[in-house]
Structures are given as structure tokens and as C-alpha cells.
Design a protein that fits this description.
Blueprint (H helix, E strand, L loop, with lengths): L30 H18 L2 H17 L3 H18 L2 H17 L3 H18 L2 H18 L2 H18 L2 H17 L3 H17 L3 H19 L2 H18 L2 H17 L3 H17 L3 H17 L4 H18 L2 H14 L24 H5 L8
Helix pairs in contact: 1-2, 2-3, 2-4, 3-4, 4-5, 4-6, 5-6, 6-7, 6-8, 7-8, 8-9, 8-10, 9-10, 10-11, 10-12, 11-12, 12-13, 12-14, 13-14, 14-15, 14-16, 15-16
């Protein structure tokens, strides 16, 4: 899967979610800058009565708020963008708003809603002739299935989207697909393949000046060299470089995942006290942005670290059982398996079953959605 960069993917990365008056913003623009500019242009568009521009500026506001962890504001912004786009009869703008809403839903752990919105977005993008939002929406569906651990269902879709991104020369989307495929290989133990793909993603992002994609790729490389090679120093150095990029652009979620990964590296090295501190930091960050997946994974790291530092076995087992129930409710099967492995590793299993089956959020990845369904969307009722 790893290969030579095409000439097209050497181009500078773009941010297609920044549109209209915000179209000149760089993919590396700091999120507070994007938010301030977005609000300014949104108000101007509202005064001018330009609904299409209201939708475009509202999308940037929604995405900046989401990435800054300002969840309630992001929710209001994408819905307002959708309403403006629908009033303007602009299906492409409707698709982008639905994509933003679906991405936010996944971030909040509302996977059933994420599937619904992203399917609607993909169909609207196809019908409106916007291949970029269609690709982003399909990618969102693939990522939702991937974080659930449904690799068989979404692996081919990741590969298809990678091929499409290469053909169109979309460096940012190429990086996303490479990282997704790499993560699946890492999670199934194919560390050499994972490392090659993460390194290709980092090189592609660097050439395209995509700081966000580069930071995520470095995090992936750090994970693999830690688990495969036990190279703690290199892993921590990579994470420090990635953290600098996250702080530069103010990527709240990426920074929290960076801190959690630093905890993972330290835990594997037997540095349990330091790991506990990093997991606690990440937990606070994830809770602040209402991100249940990151919250649960940070809690898992904390439970494991505390157990290694002498916490009572019965209490450890109870906390792991509670975590497994939480992950069942969200529908994160791979993460649920991590809890069971932790119980075995710590000698506190088998865990009691609290009735979760791990399928509460499960849905098909790409069922058809008709045009009538899109026109009938009531964004205020979606929850």
C-alpha cells in the first residue's frame, strides 16, 4: 500500500471546509484565528442577507469550535449552516454542514447519529456534484466503522478513498487514508506495514505543509516504535514534535490524544507514575471537550497505571467492568477488547458481564439514502 508520492500529492494541502470569504485561510491557520474570522464574516453575510455565504461561514465556525472542544457551540453552528444552505437551495453547502454534524457526532460518541448524518452528506454531495464533500463524508463513514473495530467492513473503503485521493492529488485526504489503514494494521499486529504507512503519511503531510496531518502521523509512528521496538526515547521525541504542532494550531483533541499516547509509551516502559500523570491530564482534556472515546481510553490507562502502583485488585476489576459497559454502550468493540486484555494482563479477570453486547451503536456503513430523506431532515430533532 505504501508507494511513491505522485506529483499531484506534492501540492500544498488545502482546507476545503474553509469556503467563501474564508477560502484563503490555510489548513494550518490557528483555530482561534479561524473562529474569529468566521464569526466576523458570518455576521457580515447575515447583514447582507446572503444565505449561501451564511452557510459557508457557519461551516468554518462549526469546525473551529469542534476542533477547539467547544462542543455546544459547534452543534449550534453546523445546524445553523445547514438551515441557511437549505433555505438557499444549495445542496453542496447542505452536504458540508451535514458532514460537520456527523463528524461532531462521532467525536461525541454518538455513532448512530454520525452514520446517519454522514450518509446524508455523501448523497447530497454526489447529487450536488461536489466530489470533495462526498469523499470527506465517505471517509467519515469509514473512520466511524474503523474506530468501532469493524475493519473488514471498512478496510476496502479506506483503500478506495486512498486511490481516489491520489488520483485527484488531494494531499490532506491521502494522509488521512494512509493513517487510517496504518492504524488498522497496527491494531492487528502488522507493525512493519503500519510503520511504513505512517511514515509515508508523515512525508506526504510534510511535503504538503499539512501540520495537522503531520502531527497525527508522528503520533502513529511513536506508537509503533514504542510497541514494536521498545524505543522509548524516539517515541517521546516524536510525540514532543507532534505536540508542538498541536499547540501551534490549537488542536485540542489531537493534543489530548498525544498526551494519552505519551502515557501509553511510559506505561509500556514500566514508568507507571509518569504514565498515571499523563493519563490524568488527557482525561481532564477529553472530559472538557465531551469526547467519550478519549475519556474512556484515558480512564483505562489510569486504571492500569494505578493497578501497577498497588491499587486493590477488587477495585481495579470493578473499574474495568464499568469501563467495558461504557464502551459497549458507545459501540467501540476494539476498545472493549482492550479492557478484557487489560483484565487478563493485571490478573483480575474474567470481568463480570453487566449486560452490554457491544452492538448498541452498530449500523451498516453505506446503506442507500433517498433524496426525500435528505429534504425531510429536521436538524433540531436529530439526537
Amino acid at each position: 500500500m505504501a508507494g511513491q508520492l505522485s506529483g499531484a500529492t506534492r501540492a500544498k494541502a488545502s482546507a476545503p471546509e474553509y469556503q467563501g470569504a474564508l477560502g484563503s485561510l490555510s489548513v494550518n491557520a490557528s483555530l482561534p484565528e479561524v473562529l474569529a474570522k468566521g464569526v466576523e464574516e458570518l455576521r457580515a453575510a447575515e447583514r447582507a442577507g446572503d444565505l449561501a455565504e451564511v452557510a459557508r461561514c457557519g461551516l468554518a465556525v462549526a469546525e473551529a469550535c469542534r476542533r477547539l472542544g467547544r462542543i455546544d457551540e459547534a452543534d449550534r453552528a453546523w445546524k445553523a449552516s445547514y438551515r441557511a444552505a437549505r433555505s438557499a437551495g444549495n445542496e453542496g453547502a447542505m452536504a458540508w454542514a451535514l458532514w460537520s454534524g456527523g463528524t461532531l457526532a462521532r467525536q461525541r460518541g454518538e455513532l448512530r447519529l454520525a452514520y446517519r448524518l454522514l450518509r446524508l452528506a455523501a448523497e447530497a454531495g454526489e447529487r450536488g456534484g461536489d466530489v470533495v464533500v462526498r469523499g470527506y463524508s465517505l471517509a467519515g463513514l469509514a473512520e466511524t466503522g474503523r474506530i468501532q473495530g469493524d475493519y473488514e467492513a471498512v478496510g476496502r473503503l479506506h483503500e478506495q478513498l486512498l486511490a481516489e485521493a491520489r488520483r485527484r492529488g488531494e494531499a490532506r485526504h491521502t494522509v488521512w487514508a494512509l493513517e487510517g489503514i496504518a492504524q488498522m494494521h497496527r491494531n492487528t499486529g502488522s507493525y512493519d506495514k503500519a510503520l511504513a504507512l505512517f511514515e509515508e503519511a508523515a512525508e506526504t503531510a510534510s511535503r504538503a505543509e499539512d501540520r495537522r496531518g503531520w502531527a497525527w502521523a508522528l503520533r502513529g509512528i511513536a506508537d509503533v516504535v514504542s510497541v514494536r521496538d521498545g524505543d522509548v526515547d524516539r517515541a517521546l521525541d516524536l510525540l514532543s514534535r507532534a505536540e508542538e504542532a498541536c499547540r501551534e494550531i490549537r488542536l485540542a483533541s489531537a493534543l489530548a490524544y498525544n498526551h494519552k499516547m505519551r502515557g501509553n509509551v511510559l506505561y509500556r516502559a514500566g514508568r507507571y507514575e509518569e504514565a498515571r500523570e499523563l493519563y490524568a491530564l488527557a482525561l481532564e482534556e477529553f472530559q472538557g471537550m465531551e469526547e467519550p472515546r478519549g475519556t474512556a481510553l484515558s480512564r483505562l490507562g489510569l486504571v492500569k497505571s494505578r493497578a501497577r502502583l498497588g491499587r486493590d485488585t477488587a477495585r481495579t476489576a470493578g473499574e474495568l467492568a464499568e469501563l467495558r459497559t461504557t464502551l459497549d454502550r458507545i459501540g467501540l468493540r476494539h476498545a472493549r477488547d482492550m479492557v478484557d486484555k487489560a483484565a487478563a494482563e493485571l490478573g483480575v479477570g474474567p470481568l463480570p458481564d453487566h449486560g452490554g453486547d457491544g452492538h448498541g451503536q452498530e449500523e451498516p456503513v453505506l446503506p442507500a439514502v433517498g433524496a426525500e430523506a435528505l429534504r425531510a431532515v429536521d436538524v433540531e430533532a436529530l439526537r
